[in-house]
Write the structure tokens for this entry.
Amino acid sequence: MPLVEVVGVEVVRYLHGELEAFVPRVVGQTERALAAREAPPRRKTTADAFLEACSPTSRAFFARLLEEVPRRGMRIEWGTKGFSVRLDRMSLAYGYPPGTASGAVFQGYLSHVPGPLQADARARWLAAAPLREAGQHTLELVVDADPAAAERALEALWQVADEVRPAEAT
């Protein structure tokens, strides 16, 4: 009976002059029982599932990105919906399938870019494509809305990664 949990409730009575209080306490609740009630961990998506959710235009864009990342000494880390492009311990970009916005989204992420390079990286991305500010450190673009701009933003990502890599090594 793994789904059955038996607990008791102890009620302690406290008196102070004419005041009376009853304080309940659960007895017999185990860590194992608490863990069993928690939601199961969410499964991470895969490249196939991610690409299948995309339009033909965004599928082609993200397929090129996913293919190029390891060639550039970076890696993809999958999440429950999308992925991050990581250089060592820092995320530099994210990809999200349609449904998270008006279409598939490419995001440049600047939080982990070292201070002196951060302003230059932001300027490079904004000069390359009409990315919109989506937070203090995040610039984003809906890939299907402007595929050519997405390609330019991706080229800017590779340039930023090349500039950050020497700074990360020191």
Remarks:
- Helices lie at 31-37, 47-53, 56-71, 115-128, 147-169.
- The chain has five helices and eight strands.
